[in-house]
Amino acid sequence: MIYAFGKALWGRQGALIAAFLLLVHPLDFAWSTMFTTDILLSFFSALSILCIVRALQHEDPAWRCRFWILAGVSLWLAFQAKISALLLAPAIALICWTNRRRLGPQFFDFLATAGVLFGATLLVYYLFTGDLFAPYHAELRYQGLAGPEAPAHVLTADRFWAYVRLLVFPDRWGAFLFSLYPHLLVALALVGWYRGIKTIPEVFWWFAFVFLGMQFNIQRAGDVWIAGSRNIRHGHVFIYPLILLLTGYLVELRLRPARLWQKLWYGLVGALLVFSAWQSAAAASKTRVAFADRRNVCQYLTTVPQKVIYSDGAIYTWCQILEVKGRAWQFKELHTFYKQQRKTEIAGITSGYLVTGGAREPIDGCFDCIPRADEILDRQKWRLLKEFPGPEKSTPWRPEPLRLWEVKEVVGDGSGTG
After folding, report:
1. pLDDT at residue 410, as a whole number
2. Which of 255, 282, 313 is the last residue of a domain?
3. Least CB-packed of 89, 103, 266, 354 within 10 Å?
């Protein structure tokens, strides 16, 4: 995708630069294989904008028609992945308006395709739920932004600046999840402004509207301003437009005739790729361990008799991914934050399995939610079924080895009484 986009805008040179920048982008490197709709949103958003750009470039009416239709389908698929795809609408509108002389009659194929698909989707929502905007209201409920609990999600400075921190600063473990791409982009934009180098407007509007829409996704509830959670994975949608903007400046600067500048350009790009590869390894090393722990315990649980599983919600989320014939996961989530309450809950368990320790999502995971082995007050009641390899050094996101426990069966005393 990124290669095709780079080639459409700057030829083979732009395609290679964009592809290498994506290959070592830390956030994409560590998160792109995860089971999340944000990856699909990024892909189909990029495909939609690419098809629009290609439709505006092509002279052949047949190809323009195909690209416009594919753009409409891609936009609809992005919406099916996440409702935030609608943030593309003002960017697409502005792109089309500024290129209105090149739209041609084939532009109505895009409008017709998008109109039919989105119209049919809204009709299906209404028929099955009685709500034309069911996905939007479902998203609000899922984030706790609708109902009596909504005022609890107060907008704080920490939450408001989450995306800016993600782009500019290292995460809590010191890794730059966007490498130095945003920093270099700002620097090159200033140089470009001074030297008269312009960016690609289609990509700029794409990034600008998506970023501003997510940054100011806030609303009023009662007497306070509220906002939903801003997870690291939500920022994946910034990756493609950011890389393409940076690629545009690098390609333009590469064409400068000065020999000294040519040497500096190669050094700059080489250093950027090396640093990004280093940050990719740093980010992926944590997520690889974190998700392997949960995957391992869920796979092991498929080999033992089916019983109720007690742990935090992160374990259940991963177990749900495994589809095992004849097995319906029975899960009860322990108290989220307070250790003493978890101890009481664990003491009251009479049958089932207990998962303690192990790793959780290293950036946005709830570390206080992880049940610990020392929260088992009565060790005589429990049998350790499996202990997985643990950390050499305890960290907040992986405090101790992952362990699976089982309540011991109660054996009669042989007296013959119940």
Report:
1. 58
2. 255
3. 266
Report which of 78, 80, 68 is spatially closest to residue 112, judged by C-alpha positions. 68
DSSP states of 213-237: HHHT--EEETTEEE-----GGGGGG
User: Cα–Cα distance between 225 and 218 in angstroms, integer?
Assistant: 7
User: What pTM, to 2 d.p., does this model score?
Assistant: 0.86
Confidence of residue 179 (pLDDT cuts 50, 70, 90): very high
Residue that wins the pLDDT comparison between 195 and 104: 104
Choose among 369, 365, 31, 38: nearest CA to 173.
Answer: 365
d(CA 214, CA 237): 10
- For residues 231 and 346, membership in a common domain is answered with no
Which of 255, 281, 307 is the C-terminal boundary of a domain?
255
Q: In 233-258, which ranges are continuous DSSP H helix?
A: 239-254
Mean pLDDT of the chain: 87
Q: What share of the chain is helix, strand, coil (3-state, %, to 5)?
A: 60, 5, 30
Q: What is the DSSP letter of 116?
A: H
Q: How confident is the model at residue 325 (pLDDT cuts 50, 70, 90)?
A: low
